[in-house]
């Protein structure tokens, strides 16, 4: 399998000999066009990829001809090289590396590309990895496609509050028509670029606040008293037992403190914060802007209706009690992935009993914790301990055999 780098001109004489002597040439339509004089059999590499792989495996196993698979860039960098090794076996596959588009772009800017976050939206609909990368990296390279164009990427970033990013667009690298330019995100909107492009997002200003686990309440834009206290926040995040690729629902998010901090533990995941009150939604957005916590998506609406259609979560935190009724808990339990965890924080004993009864009725495992912290405050030249209100955490795990 050959990686062609950024142009056919990069191919060495020995590699060109491999291509010319092959009995079967497998490549995308564009790359086939770069070899008009090839006389052997051809297979076009296209979606659905599984069908092409089945055909290729059958040919190799049954007949064993010399096959050359051509890809742009490098076969092991967002390529099908590892898949070929897995399907055909390492003894049947030889991989020849090539220059990636990111390498070529970084060389044009003199950029140390080992520090660049990389996301591929080519053939993918999810943007979770994009926002996780934007929150953690000064530079993020994005592989695009016909749907996730530079303009579409700019729109997504602006909608999430990423005004402090600019965009480089690299077009047709390795060809006589190659060009690249720097734009504001607003300048990219409505523009069309060559389908062969790479986007590089560059942060132009550091966030006002460096987000961390256990941030002080005063650092958040919040409504008076309506925030999950730091000690409870830590206990909630621990109880959720987050995995790096989890999607977390933060229901009744308030100012978003739990979701903002939990996202630090989700480098391949994300958080959906659901809040009914517009003024609190505005506070969440302001906290995202100040911290660059782009992994958090805000949904404004009344629960449980606004939960319909949201991606299925791996973890759920219910932080607003049961002010919206038991229907919120019922919907959350139904939507949670099997094997997922749910944690609810409540103050009222009546709410605690209602949640406990519901989970016991479903025969889900149950753990109840009481969290009460005290803080030293000055008194008569010394200090006394002033306790916060006790909080109950109800934790459960959805059985693997439960209906999603």
From TrEMBL:
Domain Tetrapyrrole methylase positions: 16-188
Pathway membership, UniProt: Cofactor biosynthesis; adenosylcobalamin biosynthesis
GO-annotated molecular function: protein methyltransferase activity
Keywords, ordered alphabetically: Cobalamin biosynthesis, Methyltransferase, S-adenosyl-L-methionine, Transferase
InterPro entries reported in the protein's UniProt record: 4pyrrol_Mease, 4pyrrol_Methylase_sf, 4pyrrole_Mease_sub1, 4pyrrole_Mease_sub2, CbiE, Cbl_synth_CobL, Cbl_synth_MTase_CbiT, Cobalamin_biosynth_MTase
Pfam families according to UniProt: TP_methylase (PF00590)
GO BP terms: cobalamin biosynthetic process; methylation
Top-level taxon in the UniProt lineage: Bacteria
Protein name per the record: Precorrin-6Y C5,15-methyltransferase (Decarboxylating)
Source organism phylogeny: Bacteria, Pseudomonadati, Thermodesulfobacteriota, Desulfovibrionia, Desulfovibrionales
């Amino acid at each position: 399998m050959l990686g062609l780098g950024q142009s056919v001109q990069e191919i060495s004489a020995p590699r060109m000999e491999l291509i010319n002597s092959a009995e079967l040439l497998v490549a995308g339509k564009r790359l086939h066009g770069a070899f008009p004089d090839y006389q052997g059999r051809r297979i076009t590499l296209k979606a659905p990829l599984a069908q092409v792989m089945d055909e290729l495996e059958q040919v190799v196993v049954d007949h064993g001809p010399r096959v050359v698979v051509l890809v742009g860039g490098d076969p092991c960098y967002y390529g099908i090289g590892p898949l070929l090794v897995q399907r055909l076996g390492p003894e049947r596959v030889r991989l020849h590396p090539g220059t990636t588009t990111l390498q070529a772009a970084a060389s044009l800017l003199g950029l140390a590309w080992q520090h660049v976050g990389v996301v591929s939206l080519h053939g993918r609909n999810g943007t979770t990895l994009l926002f996780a990368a934007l929150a953690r990296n000064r530079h993020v390279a994005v592989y695009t496609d016909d749907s996730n164009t530079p303009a579409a990427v700019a729109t997504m970033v602006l909608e999430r509050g990423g005004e402090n990013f600019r965009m480089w667009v690299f077009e047709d690298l390795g060809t006589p028509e190659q060009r690249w330019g720097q734009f504001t995100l607003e300048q990219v909107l409505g523009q069309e670029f060559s389908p062969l492009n790479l986007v590089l997002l560059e942060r132009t200003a550091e966030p006002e606040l460096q987000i961390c686990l256990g941030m002080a309440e005063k650092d958040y834009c919040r409504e008076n008293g309506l925030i999950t206290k730091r000690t409870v926040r830590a206990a909630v995040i621990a109880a959720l037992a987050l995995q790096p690729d989890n999607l977390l629902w933060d229901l009744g998010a308030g100012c978003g403190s739990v979701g903002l901090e939990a996202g630090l533990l989700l480098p391949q995941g994300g958080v959906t914060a659901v809040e009914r009150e517009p003024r609190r939604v505005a506070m969440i957005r302001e906290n995202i802007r100040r911290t660059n916590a782009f992994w958090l998506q805000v949904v404004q609406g009344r629960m449980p209706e606004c939960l319909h259609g949201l991606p299925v979560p791996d973890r759920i935190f219910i932080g607003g009690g049961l002010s919206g009724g038991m229907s919120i808990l019922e919907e959350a339990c139904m939507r949670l992935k099997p094997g997922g965890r749910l944690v609810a924080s409540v103050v009222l004993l009546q709410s605690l009993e209602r949640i406990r009864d519901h989970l016991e009725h479903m025969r889900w495992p149950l753990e109840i914790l009481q969290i009460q912290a005290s803080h030293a405050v000055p008194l008569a030249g010394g200090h006394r301990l002033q306790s916060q209100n006790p909080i109950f955490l109800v934790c459960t795990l959805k059985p693997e055999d439960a209906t999603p």
